[in-house]
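Minutes, project check-in
Item: structure for the 200-residue chain
Input as provided by the requester:
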Amino acid sequence: MNVSTDLRVVRSRKLIEQALMDILHNQGIKGLTVKNLSQKAGINRGTFYLHYKDIYDLIEQSEWMRGLLEIFEPIQLGHLFKHSDERSPFPAFAEAFRYLQHHSSFFKAIFHSSVPIEFRERLQYLVGTRMYESLKQDHPQSSWSDQPAGYIIAYLGTGQFGLIQHWFVTGRTLPPEEIALMLTRFIRQSPCLSPHFSGS
């Protein structure tokens, strides 16, 4: 790819992400269609599909979602269970909720109660997969490893997504550190996880 082509790609993606934010802010996720987004960005539908498979792929690749996933990426559950201060949240969770708060104009639309079921399931899978990979890395021979991976990922992802969604739906009345502490305690006390880490 030459420099001029690369610059066009960057420009197109920037226009698309700006249109994404504008539509989410003014119409919510229900107004987010390829047609509306292409019109708002001043591009044709073909240009959109050169960069993204669909609307959900755009959201997953957006700078805001990538930023959130980068915070979760290095989290090791073994470290969480060694976090000894019962009155403070696991630092990475606190960072994640501060990030969600800082970019709330984007995430409140993504975690809205009206979000389509297909996208909710994809988000749950993204979050659940990252936790599952951490489990495999920390305890590859644990008894849960004999269970079907899809069910474990669904269990882990649904819990995280539900907590974040409820936080946004209720207007984020709890500060980021408090909701992060709640998540820390939920995971530490989870019957699916705690037996495998209590002896770490």
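Outcome recorded: The chain has two domains: 3-54, 62-197.
No further action items on this chain.
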